[in-house]
Specification:
This protein has 203 residues and is mostly beta strands. It contains no helices and 23 strands. The chain has strands spanning 9-14, 21-23, 26-28, 33-38, 44-46, 49-51, 55-60, 67-69, 72-74, 79-84, 90-92, 95-97, 101-106, 123-124, 127-133, 139-141, 147-153, 156-161, 164-166, 170-175, 178-183, 186-188, 192-197. The strands form 6 sheets. Strands 9-12-14-15-17-20-23 form a 7-stranded mixed beta sheet, with no helix packed on it. A 5-stranded parallel beta sheet has the order 1-4-7-10-13, with no helix packed on it. A 4-stranded parallel beta sheet has the order 2-5-8-11, with no helix packed on it. Strand 14 (123-124) and strand 15 (127-133) form a beta hairpin. The radius of gyration is 16 Å and the shape is globular. It starts with 8 loop residues before the first strand and ends in a 6-residue tail after the last strand. 44% of the residues are buried.
């Protein structure tokens, strides 16, 4: 489908629209969102292009356990991909380039920050999205690892140093973690540079 130049959303799954396949769509130049999942779970959103909208792909408000894979969300006015008030979505092989803020996870509870982002196949401006959840071993991110944005949820012994982080919802986001060392980083033109939430014994 070509879902373009609409007043609000290109593709909109709302209010219990579950177990659908959203595949191979071109969603561009929509005034609100290219692809919007609100209150809709267990969907596959794959191989879509969501460019030049206000937001590219938004998964929000109880849209849980969706599979978001192989999508391109470029040159949107605000977010490329935004996960908001939702949990346990699986993100793989998505590319976000040239958005005001390429990628963000947000929410009001701890569970909203629990997602399946288990590798570095998601890219923001050509750099990697790093996501760690329930990790107690040493985690070290440095300038050799091509870090675009990093999340550490329920972690200990997390180090982020000498990173250059821009154009995301967060440069570094640390939640419910201990013993983080975050030093000598440059975070600019993000919504938020470096955030520690309910995290202790950090530097």
């Amino acid at each position: 489908n070509n879902v373009s130049d609409n007043q609000f959303n290109g593709l909109y799954l709302n209010n219990g629209s579950d177990y659908n396949d959203v595949l191979l769509n071109l969603a561009q130049n929509n005034n609100l969102t290219g692809i919007n999942l609100t209150g809709s779970s267990h969907n596959v959103v794959a191989n879509n292009t969501a460019n030049n909208n206000f937001h590219g792909i938004v998964v929000q408000d109880g849209s849980n356990r969706n599979n978001i894979t192989n999508n391109t969300a470029d040159y949107n006015d605000y977010y490329g991909i935004h996960l908001s008030n939702t949990e346990w979505n699986n993100l793989t092989n998505n590319n976000m380039t040239g958005n005001l803020y390429n990628f963000r996870i947000s929410g009001s509870t701890d569970d909203h920050f629990r997602q399946y982002i288990n590798d570095t196949s998601n890219h923001v401006n050509g750099k990697y999205v790093y996501y760690f959840n329930d990790t107690s071993e040493a985690i070290i991110l440095d300038e050799t690892m091509n870090v675009g944005t990093a999340y550490c949820i329920n972690c200990s012994n997390f180090t982020a140093e000498n990173l250059i982080l821009d154009h995301n919802g967060y440069g570094v986001y640390v939640r419910n973690s201990t013993n983080a060392l975050i030093t000598n980083n440059t975070a600019f033109l993000n919504e938020n540079g470096i955030i520690l939430f309910n995290s202790r014994n950090s530097t």
